[in-house]
Amino acid sequence: IIECMASSDNVVRAGFTPKFQDIPTLTSMLTYSYAPISEQKMNPVDYPYVTLNRTAYSSSSSATLYDPPIEEFSVVKTELNDEGAKATFEAIDGPSVIICTAGSGSISVGPKTEKVKAGYVFFVGATAECVLESDSESFTTFKAFCELSGKESANGTS
Fold first, then answer.
1. pTM greater than the 0.90 cutoff
2. Residue 71 — very low, low, confident or very high, per pLDDT cuts 50/70/90?
3. H/E element holding 26?
4. SS3 at position 39
5. Contact residues for 132 (Cβ-Cβ < 8 A; gap 6+)
6. Nearest alpha carbon to residue 116 among 103, 127, 126
7. Most exposed of 2, 41, 117, 124 (fewest Cβ within 10 Å)?
8. Residue 11's pLDDT is what?
9. How far apart are CA 21 and CA 44, in angstroms?
10. By the 8 A CB rule, do 134 and 152 touch?
11. What is the spatial distance between Cα 139 and Cα 59, in angstroms, rounded to a whole number?
């Protein structure tokens, strides 16, 4: 299980912490609306901006996009199911963080290549193509990313 959260400074605590707890505010914020799980559950789709090599295709490897209804980030789960399976991610207009949760392989960004194994985390800058390659029978990574095109840049301009 991977949890990816947008940054927030609006935490309201109600227990299990020595920090300030504001139970009345928390309970006033709760909603009790409900719907079937099928309406609440995010439906993953194939990620369209990745190219899998022949080994990846023949081993049923995949790149699956989880795109929550927020603008802060999306997540791609990549499963490379054979040694030599490779996923080439197109450059995007925003940074990415990639974590490996199973198996081993390598990550290449520009001329630099690094070994990857479970627990390793990598930052990939905006506009950089990224290549993941498996050196095991099962190599799983998650890539959290945000696209900055059309948003305010770091220098305050759009």
1. no
2. confident
3. helix 23-29
4. helix
5. 78, 80, 86, 87, 89, 98, 105, 106, 107, 116, 139, 141
6. 103
7. 41
8. 81
9. 36
10. no
11. 12
Position 153 scores a pLDDT of: 44
Cα(99)–Cα(151) distance, integer angstroms:
26
- Structure tokens belonging to residue 57: 């295709």
Q: Is 13 one of the catalytic residues?
A: yes
**CB of 136 within 8 A of CB of 104?**
yes
138, 81 contact by CB (below 8 A): yes
Q: Each residue of 110-157: pLDDT tens digit?
A: 999 999 999 999 999 999 999 999 999 999 999 999 988 754 444 455
Please state, as a whole number, how many other Cβ atoms lie within 10 Å of the Cβ of residue 107.
19
Of 13, 53, 77, 101, which is the active-site residue? 13
Within 13 Å, how many C-alpha atoms sit on residue 5's CB side? Answer: 6
- The C-alpha atoms of residue 124 and residue 103 are separated, in whole angstroms, by 20
- Residue bearing the bigger pLDDT, 4 or 53: 53
Retrieve residue 105's tokens: 């392989």
Task: Return the ∠ at Cα 152 (arms to 150 and 156), rounded to 5°.
Answer: 145
